[in-house]
Amino acid sequence: MRVRTVSRLLLALLLTSLVSLAQAPSGVPPDGLHTARIVSVRQIKQTNGFPMSRYPTVARFTIDFAFRLSEGNYCTAYETPVLDEVQDLVSANGQEVKVEIHGKKITVFLPSGRKIRAELVKETQC
Fold this sequence. Notes:
The chain has one domain. The termini are far apart. Helices cover 25% and strands 44% of the residues. By secondary structure, it is an alpha+beta fold.
């Protein structure tokens, strides 16, 4: 009788812990189209190629930006050689944008009409 009560108690404890783990946020936003606010933009210029080459080097920009959904803040990394994309993203800082999420891939629709495709990064890279 006592063993049966203890086993039922352990089973109930196990089930409640599984339910609480299933409800915990996973760190990945839900899929679909959302309205988000861009909260920070940081750009880093990188150049590819050799500085003393006879061929011109192409400047590539790595942009890290964070956006806020109702569930929390998320960070993304984006790389482009197009300076207009960098300027559009920097000018959208603090504004509401549409964000389409599919797993770790996101598409940001900027107020200028430009689409930017990026990937979510770990929270430690924010």
